[in-house]
Amino acid sequence: MTPAEWAVLAAGTAAIAWVNWYFFLAERGTAVAAVSAGAGSGGGGGSGGVPEVAIAVKGGYSPATVRAKVGQPVRLVFDRQETSGCSEEIVFPDFGIRKFLPAFQKTTVEVTPPAVGRYEFTCGMSMLRGTLVAEE
Ligand SMILES: [Cu+2]
Fold first, then answer.
1. Residue 124 Cα, ligand 1 centroid: separation in angstroms?
2. Are 64 and 130 in contact (CB under 8 A)?
């Protein structure tokens, strides 16, 4: 094979590996904040275009990593599916937020990441952990 053929083969292999990683691994632990489609969703919740991410709370946060845009508000909707005392509070130390999460209810926390970086959120005892990743 010529060097050019090797390059094509290598690029193709890398692309396949990336696709596999993207769909089978990256999806599992990460959610990207997306503006829910306004048209056609019916009823128009009046969220004002703020992207929402649903996070299940059950022995941890799922997904535990949420991506958002710098300088733009994002709504994290915590859906607490347990009564374990551990997860009854959600804390965003960087934003000075501490909220009670009633069991089997959804609690919305809205934050605006001020800069690129990682912002942790935890339970009231810092045992359960999640991360809000702010990107450009
Ligand atoms: Cu805890």
1. 5
2. yes
